[in-house]
Amino acid sequence: MNDKFKDAFKFHQEGKLTQARDCYVEILKKEPQNHEVLDLLGILYMQVHNYQKSLEYIKRAIEINPKIYYIENLGKLYIESENFESASEIYEILVKNNPKNYDNWFNLGMAYKNLSQWDKSKQAYIKAIEIAPDRQDAYINLAYLCFNENNPQGAVECYRKALEINSEDWETAYFLSLALMQTKNYKEGLKYFEERLCRQSAIISQEKTYPHLIKEKKLWRGNEETSDKVLYTYYEAGFGDIIMFYRFMPELVKKFKKVIFKPQHELVELFKYNSYGAEIMDMYKPEQNIYFDYHLPFLSVPYILRKTENNMFADKDKKYLKADLKIIKYFKEKYFNNNKFKIGIKWQGNTFYEKERVLKVEDFFNLFELPNTQFYSCQTFEGSEEFEKIQKKYNVINLAPEFTDFAKTAGALDNMDLVICNDTSLAHLAGAMGKPCYVLLPHVYNWRWHYDLSKCDWYNCVKIFAQKSNGDWESVFKKVEIELKKLILKA
Fold first, then answer.
1. Helix, strand, or coil (residue 263)
2. Residue of 328, 335, 209, 346 lying closest to 273 (CA atoms)
3. In whole angstroms, what is the distance from residue 264 CA to residue 280 CA?
4. Could you give the CA distance from residue 232 to residue 46 in angstroms, rounded to a whole number?
């Protein structure tokens, strides 16, 4: 090994990639057939995401000397550059050559997964686990495939195995909680749900807002005598989560002398009208003007209240949110003063997670043709631009400009006969108000709808329609149309 190569390799190891690159290039000027340097230069370019140059150098190395190590690097490049078709071809060769190599089976599973070749991916991960049962990542990826098969119990088993290997992995504990709750095992699921990132973010946010109070006061653990105490609880996660768990507010306020709740701004007026005796905060008060004995992120409430699958849904037939009568009247007079069957629709929520939840606006078009119906768009913010496709052809009333907060949305919903929407906060608002609602779910859906989709455990008034295969909204809307026609006839 010459000095120039030693220098280059040392620079590479130290992360001084520019110096390493220059040394490698200088070596290749004198030794253009040096396959080891070609491969290392390919790895270096992979590190800086210049995949084209990486491919060029690694392939040149393989042409000169087809070492297995170089071919493995080519497979890694294809995975990293998301060329999963080529990656699968490379790793199929590699596992035949060395069937005892864990990484190659794992990467083959990764390639198949991203090509939606679910069965092949599953078998590759199982093979990887057989080779190295003490490696965590194959169990985690296999759990994903179980979710894709709507097999949450299989996901539970995989996540449990992963946690046995690394009990400190909070992210796996969190995903285990989702799998457990989808199987309605809330006794265990809520415990692991405490590992969620949004909980930590909510606490940190409040520590910045009320640094002295939050650090001085304790998190409520549920075992303390609290009848003469004040609780401060604050939002985390999305609107739908907060609305869904607001069902526990009546029980919560009974435990304390006073409950102070800080929801998102858009929920303040709705919750003030349905406070159950809690003080609903809008914006942050100066620290000297607020007092509490305990604090708690709001999604921890069911865990602290010791909810299980036996009492989580005890009030699912109860309307726990109602709209302001003045707002109801306003919408009635302006938009709903007709004798038609009134249907609110929404096709999109927050797409930061679970983009599969988004509906195609065009799939609603057949419903718009049904006689004696009046449709109302409840789509706000992201996705609202799609309303242009509707208004060119149909007389659908756009309520989105009116929906400045959830109190307004609730006032409009009170005037409707039915809501049809994707998995979004509107479904939870309708459910909390006891308003009939059709929720349309993708094939792989959120944990809260549980394994049995024949009923909605959270709200008796909600009916679930789910895809039978990925992307198939057409068959979902056909079923919706059949059910809607029956409902209109009864009206």
1. coil
2. 328
3. 10
4. 49
Q: What length is written for the chain?
A: 491
Helix residue ranges, H only, 246-324:
249-254, 268-273, 301-304
| CA distance to 13, 25, 54, 81, 341, per residue, from 73 (Å) | 17, 19, 10, 12, 62
Candidates 40, 52, 46; CA nearest to 12 is 40
Edge to edge, the sheet with strand 230-234 lists 218-219, 294-297, 230-234, 258-262, 279-280
Question: Helices 118-131 and 137-148 meet at what angle, rounded to 10?
Answer: 150
- Cα 472 to Cα 479: distance, rounded to the nearest angstrom: 12
How many other C-beta atoms are found inside a 10 Å radius of the C-beta of residue 8? 25
CA distance 347 to 400: 13
Number of neighbouring beta carbons within 10 Å of residue 322: 15
Backbone angles phi, psi at 137, to 5 degrees: -65, -30
Cα(14)–Cα(9) distance, integer angstroms: 9
Measured distance CA(487)–CA(491) in Å, rounded: 6
Confidence of residue 144 (pLDDT cuts 50, 70, 90): very high
Closest CA to 228 of 253, 259, 256: 256
CB 82 within 8 A of CB 115: no
Name the DSSP class of 467.
-
- Domains annotated for the chain, with CATH where assigned, are 197-304 (no CATH), 325-490 (3.40.50.2000)
CA nearest 179: which of 161, 193, 199?
193
- Locate 109 and state its tokens: 């599973």
Q: Please provide the average confidence, as pLDDT, over all residues in the chain.
A: 95
Give the span between the Cα atoms of 330 and 333, in whole angstroms.
6
Cα atoms in the 13 Å half-sphere on the side-chain side of 247:
23
In this predicted model, which residue has the larger pLDDT, 392 or 366? 366
Q: What are phi and psi of 470, to 5 degrees?
A: -55, 130
What is the value of pTM for the model shown? 0.91
Which string of DSSP letters, residue by residue, matches 136-181?
A: SHHHHHHHHHHHHTT-HHHHHHHHHHHHHH-TT-HHHHHHHHHHHH
For the chain, first and last CA: distance in Å?
86
* CA 210/CA 290 separation, integer angstroms: 9
- pLDDT tens digits, 243-253: 999 999 999 99
3-state secondary structure of 231: strand
